[in-house]
């Protein structure tokens, strides 16, 4: 389209991107929910990370319109999403975890939000466990999950992103194993765009069973989030203090989950992976740092309030 927002919803092409690594039953249910989305034209891409349970064959048998990208190995979440996005042609990308499924009107809600706010870059669904209705991504805060509000980051497996902005900021970093959302969020916020939690759009996602998530998952997530901060934050005090805090926090986690024997190598990996990315090619403005901190601890629900907060932070005034 020649100008963002000039199309009607029925004309907009939305690319749904799903990563698959086994989980045949869950993936089919996920695709069923995508097929029930309405209010747009759909392009559905499944990137298969070398599954062995017949999920690709099941997709090809049941969904003739789904494009399957077969990978020769498991590329993981972030590199897989990057590869899939490079093959997508929609004006918006919806990244969906294959073990979740969308409520029928989620896409329509997302597009409505984008139509109302030309500075919206990411619309995130409310993520809840279908068994106990406990929300993810809001610290288990049920009341906050029920409120539309602006965020400092988002959940990468339950969000719609403007395709033009995704590519403008370089997309998801392909070299990460976890915690890739801040790399995108910091840059979008720095450009003056917004990220919104949409409480009426829902991704149902069961909590992973005990034993499925490796013991180092929390460490990997902490390491990559630290790397995002080291790559983007100005100055040295905040990254250095964050490094000390995360090292101490991971030591506690290692003691709790019995992986203390891996602690020395893990901490070295955390430190040096951060130092390798020190002073990245995108250092965010100090006012963006303040905005991230503000959105972490305050609930901002309206565009007008958001604009006032941004102006106050840029002007060094008390919000």
Give a quick summary of the entry.
By secondary structure, the chain is an alpha/beta fold. It has helices at 24-35, 55-62, 76-86, 106-116, 142-145, 163-168, 181-190, 217-232, 237-257, 263-276, 286-297, 303-314; strands spanning 13-20, 41-48, 67-70, 92-97, 100-102, 120-128, 135-136, 149-150, 158-162, 194-205. Helix 8 (217-232) packs parallel to helix 10.
Strand content: 15-25%
Structural class call reads alpha/beta
Number of helices: 12
Radius of gyration: 20 Å
* CATH architecture name of the largest domain: Alpha-Beta Complex
Distance between the termini: 38 Å
| Quantity of strands, as a count | 10
Note the main sheet.
10 strands, mixed
Give the low-pLDDT segments. none
Oligomer: single chain
The pLDDT mean sits at 86
Element order: H for helix, E for strand: EHEHEHEEHEEHEEHHEHHHHH
Structure description:
The protein is globular, with a radius of gyration of 20 Å. The model has no long low-confidence stretch (mean pLDDT 86). It is an alpha/beta fold. It is built from twelve helices and ten strands. The longest helix has 21 residues, at 237-257. Strands 1, 2, 3, 4, 5, 6, 7, 8, 9 and 10 form a ten-stranded mixed beta sheet that branches. It has two domains: 13-205, Spore Coat Polysaccharide Biosynthesis Protein SpsA, Chain A; 217-276. Strand 2 (41-48), helix 2 (55-62) and strand 3 (67-70) form a beta-alpha-beta unit.
